[in-house]
Amino acid sequence: MLQNTFQGSGCIVDSIIYDAVENPNRCSIQYHDARAKGKLELFVNSRQSSTNEEGRYHSFENLRQSSVRQVEGQRASQTVVDYAVELDLLFDRSSSSNPKTESFNRARGLYRILSYVEPQDDLYFIRPNRPVAAFDYDIVISKQM
Question: How many CB atoms lie within 10 A of CB 102?
Fold first, then answer.
């Protein structure tokens, strides 16, 4: 997930740098729009995932997004955002009589984004590891036949 910190800016992506071998926890995106050039750095700080026999999948990732934007003739601005992404899915099994050909045609679940305060915020030292906002989305994923 990449958060567009400059809504409505008509950004054009110039390059995406991701090396799964050298550093699988970092993705860099360089972009530009009519007024500025910018760079996003996305870091995965921790990742957990699990599955079970009933078809449930759960994942939780802590992320940091750093954005630098340079408007021509002005000083560059930087934004750092910490958030977590949680995904909890339950896959519906198909009704196949042969267990070897059993597949999953649909999944339902929850997609949650948790936002945290930053060290430059006044409230950071009161609740540094607690989210200050949560966005929940009910999702349904289905296979097109």
Answer: 12
What DSSP string describes 112-135? Answer: EEEE---TTSTTTTTSTTS-SEEE
Residue-wise pLDDT for 116-136, tens only, equals 887 777 777 777 778 888 999
Q: How far apart are CA 98 and CA 95, in angstroms?
A: 9
Residues 24 and 42: beta-carbon distance below 8 Å: no
Tens of pLDDT, residues 29-47: 998 888 888 898 989 989 9
DSSP code string of 21-88: TTEEEEEEEEEE-SSEEEEEEEEEEEEEEEE-TTSEEEEEEEEEEEEEEEETTS--EEEEEEEEEEEE
